[in-house]
């Protein structure tokens, strides 16, 4: 959607029409949502890194990801309403199951997960255009192919940074858990020692009370 604004806008208009016909949004909200679709151009300037990190790391749910981008600014209010409605659509399993057969034809030995995802993106993009003969080979596309090694290396760097950060968090978490366990053990030890001393004092008091009674 972000790479081909015309196709994205066409699909978005279809979504708006479906929601409006189903009485899920008003005509005014649909018009405002269409105007706010300009958010896609803002993404290229302000949020490109966030989208690239999301696509490469996938460590955040899609609804939470868009919530962080759209919900906090009132100017995207109607667009966020449309996006929320899309998130709660009941899609069923048919499209997912159809995708299994497509994935099967793409699987080769040692194929990485991200490579399969990118293959599917290319496949879906070509399919949405109606076939490979309808794909326009633009100058931007040629430049992207020639410079493919740079984003690949950048992706490896981001992945390494993500894994290092994750490992650091895991190590820090394990350290905190050990410190907490030590404190719990110390607390338990202190409590047991306290109970032991209280028992000893109670026994001494009882002995003295009995001696006192014997002297009466």
From TrEMBL:
Keywords: Coiled coil
Superkingdom: Eukaryota
Stretches assigned to coiled coil: 159-211
Keyword match Coiled coil: yes
Name of this protein: HAT C-terminal dimerisation domain-containing protein
Lineage: Eukaryota, Metazoa, Ecdysozoa, Arthropoda, Chelicerata
């Amino acid at each position: 959607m972000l790479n081909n604004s015309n196709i994205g806008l066409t699909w978005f208009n279809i979504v708006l029409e479906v929601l409006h016909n189903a009485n899920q949004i008003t005509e005014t909200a649909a018009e405002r949502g269409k105007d706010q679709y300009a958010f896609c151009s803002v993404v290229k300037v302000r949020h490109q890194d966030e989208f690239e990190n999301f696509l490469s790391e996938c460590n955040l749910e899609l609804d939470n990801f868009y919530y962080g981008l759209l919900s906090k600014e009132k100017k995207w209010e109607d667009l966020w309403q449309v996006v929320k409605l899309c998130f709660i659509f009941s899609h069923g399993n048919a499209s997912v199951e159809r995708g299994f057969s497509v994935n099967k034809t793409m699987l080769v030995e040692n194929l990485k997960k991200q490579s399969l995802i990118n293959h599917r993106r290319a496949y879906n993009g070509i399919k949405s255009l109606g076939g490979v003969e309808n794909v326009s080979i633009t100058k931007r596309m040629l430049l992207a192919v020639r410079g493919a090694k740079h984003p690949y290396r950048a992706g490896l760097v981001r992945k390494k940074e993500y894994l290092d950060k994750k490992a650091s968090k895991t190590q820090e978490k394990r350290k905190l858990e050990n410190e907490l366990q030590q404190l719990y053990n110390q607390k338990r030890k202190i409590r047991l020692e306290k109970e032991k001393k209280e028992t000893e004092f109670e026994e001494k008091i009882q002995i003295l009370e009995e001696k006192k009674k014997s002297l009466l």
